[in-house]
Amino acid sequence: MTVHELKCWPAAFRAVRQGTKTFELRENREPGFAIGDILWLREYDPDTGLYPGGSLLARVNYVLPASEVPLHPLPEGWVAMSIQVENPWRS
Description:
By secondary structure, the chain is mainly beta. The chain has one helix spanning 10-18, and strands at 3-8, 23-27, 38-43, 55-65, 78-85. It has a single domain, classed as Roll (Archaeosine Trna-guanine Transglycosylase, Chain: A, domain 4), CATH 2.30.130.
């Protein structure tokens, strides 16, 4: 199991925290994403380059590589992940 620290833009962060966004699309950089990994999502404002303060942990339940998406492929090297929030109210 790996913990991945990731920036998450405010609207997406709120949707994950509220439980309406249960997936994540990411470039699969080293060490790569795997089932059981933890995503440490940190709310990040791309306009200011600052972290407004929110963070949460989400567990990866499924990883779908771009190579397995035949109809509308993700960019090569990207993955779609099913995630489940572990602690939705951490800030």
